[in-house]
Backbone:
């Protein structure tokens, strides 16, 4: 028994031959690992925090509200998540993202103002809607921080109809407008555009600026000034084609007036009127104004020499946007010739006779019942109104134009304020 006890006590402990932990053998290694890991985390944070902050500054946005301004007829407004429309007959601001604006099938026009810079009432972009158009405001944002380099953004959807889009870059940053249709997407830079969406296709004509048509896996198509393009549910045009010929130069007043328009003034020994080019609501306009003695006739205008033969054309249409702000002389005067804004085309007919055709705009009814309105129409004041003439080749078929000599746009009467924009004389 004693031998058993002695033998058992002489046995070596089981842990004697076990290897000891390496960390205990080399504590310097642990220190270096901790030091290098801490440094790596510090460097990662040093890089990640500024990048994350910069990203936050770049992508953070603030919602903007649109302004809906009916010009003609009744406009239906569907607020976000609403199934019942509101009939809009007067200016309405605070139109939020998600709203749907619909123009009826009758004679209807309206303007949607998009982006205001620095909380002013000066819009950097606007959309003009016509009858049968349905527009949804998907997104309208401005950067939250002035440090951001991101543009103002507007994302819209058009299910059907016709619209005209005007955009200008702001003083701080550009404006980016994207329009989705059932056939694809259109990205617009600063400029002016005409877009028509039907069940079969989306068509765009670029008056000024540059548009990019995108559709699925198709290569994007770039459309520049004076061209048009289209896309359908299955196809995208390979390259833009020439639009109908516009006989006017610089009808949107985006270029120098030196080679296109000349101004003139008629005022005898009284305060004259004046005309200037300026930017309003995302578009360039010619502004006519006269503020002086009342009850004296004056006239101020711009004119352009055209000198274009039109014998080969079957269609000739004049289109322009008008906004009337003030007229002290009611109606169009005694001779129906003194409008706050009027356009006149001078032409030579097929018999060689020099003639003219014109159309005027006013908003104050004649105070004298004997003052008749001839070749003019009453339009709402303070709103943009698009006038599109009948086919002048048909209207003037008894003295059919053979050559368009010139055009002039002018304001006349006593005191007046008016604007004109987007003037086209299109021959097809």
Residues:
């Amino acid at each position: 028994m004693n031998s058993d006890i002695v033998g058992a006590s002489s046995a070596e402990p089981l842990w004697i031959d076990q290897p000891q932990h390496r960390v205990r053998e080399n504590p310097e290694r642990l220190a270096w690992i901790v030091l290098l890991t801490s440094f790596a985390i510090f460097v990662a944070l040093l890089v990640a925090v500024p990048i994350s902050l910069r990203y936050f500054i770049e992508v953070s946005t603030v919602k903007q509200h649109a302004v809906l301004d009916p010009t003609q007829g009744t406009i239906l407004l569907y607020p976000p998540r609403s199934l019942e429309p509101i009939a809009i007959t007067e200016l309405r601001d605070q139109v939020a993202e998600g709203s749907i604006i619909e123009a009826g099938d009758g004679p209807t026009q309206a303007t949607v103002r998009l982006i205001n810079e620095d909380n002013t009432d000066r819009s950097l972009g606007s959309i003009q809607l016509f009858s049968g158009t349905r527009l949804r405001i998907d997104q309208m944002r401005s950067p939250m921080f002035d440090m951001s380099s991101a543009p103002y953004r507007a994302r819209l959807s058009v299910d059907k109809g016709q619209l005209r889009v005007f955009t200008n870059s702001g003083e701080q940053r550009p404006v980016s407008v994207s329009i989705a249709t059932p056939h694809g997407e259109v990205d617009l830079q600063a400029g002016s555009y005409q877009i028509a969406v039907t069940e079969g296709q989306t068509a765009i004509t670029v008056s000024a600026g540059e548009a990019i048509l995108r559709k699925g896996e198709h290569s994007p198509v770039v459309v520049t000034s004076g061209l048009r393009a289209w896309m359908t549910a299955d196809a995208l045009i390979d390259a833009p084609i020439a639009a109908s010929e516009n006989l006017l130069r610089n009808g949107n007043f985006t270029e120098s007036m030196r080679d296109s328009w000349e101004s003139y003034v008629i005022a005898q020994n009284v305060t004259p009127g004046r005309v200037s080019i300026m930017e309003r609501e995302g578009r360039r306009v010619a502004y006519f104004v006269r503020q002086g003695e009342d009850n004296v006739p004056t006239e101020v205008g711009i004119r352009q020499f055209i000198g274009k033969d039109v014998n080969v054309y079957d269609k000739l249409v004049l289109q322009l946007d008008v906004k009337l702000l003030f007229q002290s002389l009611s109606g169009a005067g005694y001779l129906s010739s003194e409008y706050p804004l009027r356009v006149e085309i001078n032409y030579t007919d097929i018999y060689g006779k020099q003639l003219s055709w014109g159309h005027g705009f006013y908003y104050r009814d004649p105070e004298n019942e004997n003052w008749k309105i001839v070749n003019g129409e009453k339009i709402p004041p303070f709103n943009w109104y698009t006038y599109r003439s009948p086919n002048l080749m048909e209207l003037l078929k008894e003295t059919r134009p053979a050559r368009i000599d010139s055009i002039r746009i002018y304001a006349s009467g006593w005191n007046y304020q008016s604007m004109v924009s987007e003037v086209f004389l299109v021959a097809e």
In short: The longest strand covers residues 152-167.
